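Dear colleagues,

As part of the handover before I leave the project, I'm documenting each prediction I ran so the next person doesn't have to rerun anything. This entry is a single chain, and its sequence is reproduced below.
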Amino acid sequence: MTTQQQHPPAAPALDVVGVSVRYGRSITALREVNLTVHDGEVVTLMGLNGAGKSTLARAVTGLLPAQGGTITAGHIRSFGGDLTRRSPRTIVRHGVAQTLEGRRIFGAMTVTENLEMGGTTVRGAQLRANREQMFALFPRLAERRDQAAGLLSGGEQQMLAVARALMSSPGCSCWTSRPSACRRSSSRSCATPSAPSAKPAPACC
């Protein structure tokens, strides 16, 4: 008689448990929020302006202090690692990236240079491989690789913002709004990576 060994379930790509956030001394933006995103899942948060969607994304990616916010309760984990109140640099190195609202590209730098700014956690051959993978995902960016990013159209800038976040090979990617690039002609390449080694990262917010 044989028995099948039971393996523990894989840790979620993102696990937010009981998180509360406050701005200053009096404004409570989130109260006991729970959210779980498993590897390979895409989870969308919907709500009115001021509902706390961007605040949750900032809590996950460590950007709350820059906006005067503080996590007052709960914890945030990614693949088992505790990210609660960690610095943005630590969180990116752990494999969590964010595409910021408003694109926030470096307009005076080329498309290629913008991508490389997003790949600071990888080096050498891996950096080059990730860059070519982004050009395969977004052929329009490949056509404009040596062009100043500030001269791109709005949709192309959104593609660049998404590609830059993916340059670090994140296990979890947070978008503060659905990228307009995925609503236009490139929607097929956003949803179905054409590079053989590409693995879509879970997305939330």
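The first strand starts at residue 14 and ends at 23. The radius of gyration is 18 Å.

All the best with the project,
I.
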